[in-house]
Please model this.
Amino acid sequence: MPGIIKQRLFTPGPTPLLMEAQARTLTAANVHHRTEAFRKILAETLELLKYYFNTKNDVLVFASSGTGAMEGSVSNLVSPGERILVGTAGKFGERWLSLAQAYGIEAVKVESPYGHPVDIEAMKQKLAQEGPFRAVYIQATETSTAVMNDVQALGEAVKNYPETCLVVDAITGLGTTDLRPDEWGLDIVIGGSQKAVMIPPGLAFVSVSEKAWGLIAKAKLPRFYFDFAKERKNQAKGETAYTPATTLVISLHAALEYIKEMGRENLIANAALLASLAREAAKALGLKLFAASSPANAVTAVCAAEGMDSGAIIKELRSRFGAIVANGQGSMKGQIFRLAHLGYYDVADLFAIVAALEIALVKLGQKVELGKGVRAVEEAYLRLVS
Model:
């Protein structure tokens, strides 16, 4: 074995860090959050987040994981006795159901099998026949299964219900998928820092439409830390209601400047290209893709060969090459592995992980023609990139 093995992340969060953002963080240790210097940075960051989200709506920042913002989107919108509609097709869709249960809210679900997108027509039928619902909850990308949901079609339907908000978990959808919150009627959109913005975990972002603000003003569930109206009031002044993660905000500011210079559409196109190339490689190696339809750009889920535990592939990639790849979640653990494409990845990273995967499969006894997957990526790259 070689003396040096560099660890490389190929997981859908945390993702590889943008060095420009990390360099900015090193100078931020002594910045106090109740100063004009930080107020200026926060105000600029909030404007940059609007660009990143592709919205004119307010965007709030919380020191939390994305799940905190998911919880806030329940506690800020819903009152006791009201009902919600949930579209679920994986572990993160199921999280909406757990949050509703935690607050004693009745959730009506439309559930699709793992590997398939949520049935939007079934969601529309539930809206029309079983309402009223205060809110509809769904993922833009179901990261656990690498499937993309049609939030545009759902948004167009929810627009017809003035007392119902559409909430989209876009934690891995932002920066990987064309999302148009204002045009499509995505009332609350949620993001996280350890994804396509290429900085460490610890921040959650929430865009909130005027329709949502109107319903938030009437909601009666208890809330304290994740109080959207309180944060809106404070962040309008360049402050946060409680102590912010100052170094992460400063790192986020740098990352968003980088994204704006690159172009949001180019960040999305990068993820889409890598996902397309990864699917070509899997097929060339005789591996089945888990997403039966509507595959995501953020991550590609690949089925292990018959009779093989995906954990063995993951272990081989980590021990031999330092490549950290995600296993399946829940019932999919041991059946699939997931390669991420969101954030600070480029095509050379994909060449490397496909080559490493070929060797790992050979070492695990699979009949794989070395170079076949890499060649498929190279040929697809030459075909797709001028």
Notes: The two ends are 38 Å apart (CA to CA). The chain has 14 helices and 14 strands. Residues 264-284 form the longest helix (21 residues). The chain has a mean pLDDT of 95.
